[in-house]
Amino acid sequence: MEPPEHARARAPGASGDPLVGRLLDRRYRIGPRIARGGMASVYEATDTRLDRTVAVKVMHPGLGDDQEFAARFVREARAAARLNHPHVVGVYDQGDDTSEGQDTVFLVMEYVPGHTLRDVVRKESPMPPTRALAVLEPVVSALAAAHRAGLIHRDVKPENVLIADEAHGGQVKVADFGLAKAVSADTQHTATGGVLIGTVSYLAPELVVDGRSDARADVYATGVVLYELLTGRKPHEGESPIQVAYRHVHHDVPLPSLLQPAIPDYVDALVARATSRDRDQRPADATVLLHHVHRVEQALREGLAADPELAADLRPRPVPETQSEYDDPGNDTTPEPFDASALALLTEVDPRDSGLVDDGTPDRTTALERHLVPPGAPERAGGPVTEPMRTTPTDAPRDDVPTSAVPVAPAPVRAPATPSGRSPGTSPGKSPSKVAPVATAPRRRSVKGPLVLLLAVLLLAGVAGGAYWFGWARYTTTPGVLTLDEAAATAKLEDAGLDVALGDPAYSENVDPGLVISTDPGPGGKVLSGGTVTLVLSLGPERYDVPDLSGRTEDQAQDALAATNLAFGKSVGRWSETVPEGQVIRTSPKVGTTLKPGASVDLVLSRGRKPLPIRDWTGKSFDDAKAALEARKLQVTVADQQYSDTVAEGDVISQDPATGTLYKGDTVSFVVSLGPELVEVPRVRAMGVEAATELLEGLGFVVETEQADSYLGLGFVYSSDPAQGDEVPKGSTITLFLI
């Protein structure tokens, strides 16, 4: 079995581990090893690009060359990556590093510092039902997400349930989807190369019997985990894994209340339902099981010591004893319905030493116990023997005893008794040493016998001759014409006295167009002399060009891809000023690219015109506003320029529209400030102070007076500040100097 992705205890790698300190894929710096299994090891590592701690699962050296192992590794990455769920260990990356002369196949996963559910079982079990279901509920939720995605885990056990430290939130996560596989018609087997996949203590009966699994096998394993949480023990134990598997097939999981009497009846019923040996009576998948778990949790929250109605609803329906799916009636001599050789592969145990003859339990019978011999039967050195019943012509078979299978001892034939009651030649107290012959009348020979024998011989000879002719003599062997062109293949077949027909051509990745890729019958096959051989010519590799899907909707584009034997990959939205929303802008790969059948084509779909939110530029520089808006492909105009005592020259007084959303090419108009209005200071020199003040105030100025240095008290203006001819903003202060 593969190791779980993480383990609680961090065990350093072996001394001199060449991976420790290595930089995989120029990105992942390998640290100490934290788990090791038969196929891979898990290391704590640092993602140097994103500066985070990750777990890197590395396939053991040499296994990367095995295509089956490598494919399984990649399948694990893809299977787990499909599950985006808070209770599933995430897979970040998968790669193959060849930097040091050997393939290092690896997965990069979420690092979960903490411990496993196995540690919780050791420390806390048996635990109350409320605690057990609280721990199990995230596991069932994760499995439900997997089942909805078409995946089964196939190795549910406490070691594969990780619980983060309290410092990291204490979150429960299901790990090791390396055994997961998409559910389909041809992926129902859970055996690989004859070895059962899954830990034997959690194997569902159907996995042992016929190696087939579906979501209900995960449900069974989850029920076993729940039993272990509630009782602290596994439901079935034995001296070898084979005996444990045997008990899973032939024995129900015991009720937890047998070990923990305080457990309510409806919790017993939940365990019985999940672990029913009849998989049709288990929940169909983890989603249904999760619903049952929530019902039981609600009953526990209400403090119900028993709930007969809920228990009856959850409890599996009783199966008649003679119609159990896997168990046989006590007097049935049919071999047990599973392959001991396949089970023995789990531990490389010889099936003869597997312990399957008698597992030591009182409620099962051994093969000898199911074939009892009546008392008085003769014995040999090896033990009791049985024989079929014999009858003489005068014996009439009894109606109540089948004469073909009753094991009885051979009955001695007695001679006529002597007057003393003994048979001749015997002494008192002893059994007769001889058996008297039974007198029979001589049979008359029939003259029909030789005639019947002769007819039978003649009939047999005729049948043999006909069989030889019809089954062999009239046939010839089909010549091999593979990889020949049509003309050469036709000539070779006609030379052999055969006719030629052309079948439908077919694609081939290995045979050039126009050459023969198969015949019917095949090379070396039997064909009637003068019969017809059908040739199938190669069309060459099957390839398809990516069609032009521009302007089509997503549904129309998917239909067009399916019609050309190409697969739809994913769609990505992009803004477009020319393509209406929801239509295809382009494809990736681009139009005309030649691809193999089934290759994925991604679509770039229009999201319509890109909305452009605008900001209010009032009081800001008009030049800055113009540059920003024109960079976003908007038109900018100046609607007016105005004097403003409050807005500086060149800044925006107002805009239209002020806020909102526009689209490329739309117009924004502005009113731009000229600054305060300027007024020219008039000539006031030699004017009286009253007249000069009146003139300046009339122009909007504020007037102040001061005495000039040569002040004489005449009351006339000598000069002004600002001086005559200066342009100053209206409302400015003009100082008059008097003489």
From TrEMBL:
SMART domains xref list: PASTA (SM00740), S_TKc (SM00220)
Catalytic activity: L-threonyl-[protein] + ATP = O-phospho-L-threonyl-[protein] + ADP + H(+); L-seryl-[protein] + ATP = O-phospho-L-seryl-[protein] + ADP + H(+)
Enzyme class: transferase
PROSITE patterns reported for this sequence: PASTA, PROTEIN_KINASE_DOM, PROTEIN_KINASE_ST
Domain Protein kinase positions: 28-294
Protein's GO biological process: negative regulation of fatty acid biosynthetic process
Residue spans crossing the bilayer: 451-472
Biased composition (Low complexity): 402-434
InterPro entries (UniProt xref): Kinase-like_dom_sf, PASTA_dom, Prot_kinase_dom, Ser/Thr_kinase_AS
Keywords, comma-separated and alphabetical: ATP-binding, Kinase, Membrane, Nucleotide-binding, Serine/threonine-protein kinase, Transferase, Transmembrane, Transmembrane helix
SUPFAM superfamilies: Protein kinase-like (PK-like)
Single GO MF descriptor: protein serine/threonine kinase activity
Protein name, UniProt field: non-specific serine/threonine protein kinase
Natural source organism: Nocardioides exalbidus
Top-level taxonomy: Bacteria, Bacillati, Actinomycetota, Actinomycetes, Propionibacteriales
